[in-house]
Amino acid sequence: MIDRQRSDNRGRVKTRHTGYRSWIALCAFACLFNYPVGSAAAAATPVSNGSQPPASLQVLHWWTSAGERKAVDVMSSKLAEENIQWRDAAIPGGAGLGASKVLKSMVLAGKAPEATQLNGIVFGEWADLGLLLELDDVAAPGNWQKLLFPTVWSLVNNRGHVVAVPLGIHRINNLFYNKKIFDRLNLTPPKTWADFSRVAEKLRQAGITPLAQSSEAWQVATLFETLVLAESGPAYYRSLFVDLNPAAFGDPRMTHALKRLRSLKEWMPTPLRERPWPEMTRELANGAAAMFVMGDWAKGELLAWGLNTDQDFSCSTVPGTADYHLYSVDTLAMFAGDYSHQPAQEKLAQIIMSPPVQTAYNQVKGAISVWRSPDLSKMDSCARASWSAFSKGSAFQAPSLVHRMAADETAKDAIIAEVHRYFVDDKMSESDVQRKLASIARSVTKSGKQE
Ligand code: BGC
């Protein structure tokens, strides 16, 4: 462990804990993108104190759909009221696949944005490299530790420091349904898989695609992780995707979840194509499809198009998951750089955490506030169900693998790729994919990537 020290713009000495693993990670990025390590080190080198705070912040993120843009507008307009401009670096691509690559390149080129959407356990690694601004001076007076959900509080902490601002909590195990179609056909949302098949059959007879789905890998894997949760509950889910226990991948529950994934193809559009998630949401909205399993950013999209909860669409949960909350927490991390942006960055953190902004942002984003006791009167039925499930505590919560809450990028990407291969290739057997997943888990845990 190497400790380096420098001062923030208030003259306080900051210690950077730079572990060997982080240096290995940095070298790996450098090789991957063909950047000299020196340029990344330059980004982390202190320049001087006391420079004027700039009146703008560049923010990298992947919120590019209609609902996501509205959510960005909530934050950027509040920031503008403080005379700070939000300079957008929006990288399209659901689940942030493109954005995370662009971010690594920018950091390695010494051009880190001042703020970035950086979800999940990965920001611990960035913080260990000494790149992130510690936000303790906003978190402590704001009483974050007491007021945040404990899961969120521990997520944004790294070695006793707050290194990210949480924006909202998304639920992934939603079963959205087109309310008008369900009412017209006198259907109720399915609570069991047997119900699901009955409802799907009626929809098919009415000429409607029962289940919207894209074949894009992350969207297939998003469905799959909900099926794993449905099959087993959070404890087994965690042994797979958090502990990466190789033996767990050989379990019959995994076989069942895989079979369920394949069997659901029967109810999906044919041919199945790789389509962005807003297009699949559109299918639900216009009635081409009647159900959709997706994170509740899809609700943000439906609302942005002028549809109404419980009139045009409603939310239920994937059969077997009503008590559980498969979650993804969006967070913004700030790059420390030479600390000249610190006042503006802290202001952005304060703005995001103010209760009115939390309410307004999450209403349009489709998520729920990170505060334990939000204003429930401002929530629709979907948000209230999400809040109730999340409030039950960690035994009922499952961290999304696909949305970076469970494992690091290497493990996540390898698992998604195998599940996707199984999904598109009907000749691949469950035991084949289970063996492959177990061997990914073995190699990732052996190489020490997962702690
Ligand atoms: C993010 C959401 C985003 C969604 C679709 C998820 O990983 O947490 O904020 O709306 O991807 O791109």
Give the class from helix and strand content and strand pairing.
Answer: alpha/beta
CATH class of the largest domain: Alpha Beta
Rg (CA only): 22 Å
The CATH topology of the largest domain corresponds to D-Maltodextrin-Binding Protein, domain 2
Could you say which small molecules are bound to this protein? beta-D-glucopyranose
Describe the largest sheet.
6 strands, mixed
Low-confidence stretches: 17-50
The CATH architecture term of the largest domain is 3-Layer(aba) Sandwich
Q: Give the termini separation.
A: 16 Å
Overall tally of domains: 2
Strand content: 15-25%
The strand count comes to 14
Describe what this molecule looks like in 3D:
The structure is a single chain. By secondary structure, this protein is α/β, with parallel strands linked by helices. It folds into 2 domains: 13-167 and 331-370, 3-Layer(aba) Sandwich (D-Maltodextrin-Binding Protein, domain 2), CATH 3.40.190.10; 174-327 and 387-450, D-Maltodextrin-Binding Protein, domain 2 (3-Layer(aba) Sandwich). The chain is built from 20 helices and 14 strands. It has helices spanning 20-33, 37-44, 66-81, 97-108, 122-128, 136-139, 144-147, 150-155, 179-184, 193-205, 217-232, 234-241, 252-263, 277-286, 297-304, 342-353, 355-365, 381-391, 409-424, 430-446; strands spanning 2-7, 13-18, 56-61, 85-90, 115-117, 157-158, 161-162, 165-171, 174-178, 209-212, 289-293, 313-317, 325-334, 397-399. Strand 1 and strand 2 (13-18) form a beta hairpin. The structure holds beta-D-glucopyranose. Residues 62, 68, 94-96, 119, 170, 295, 297, 328, 330, 403 line the site of beta-D-glucopyranose.
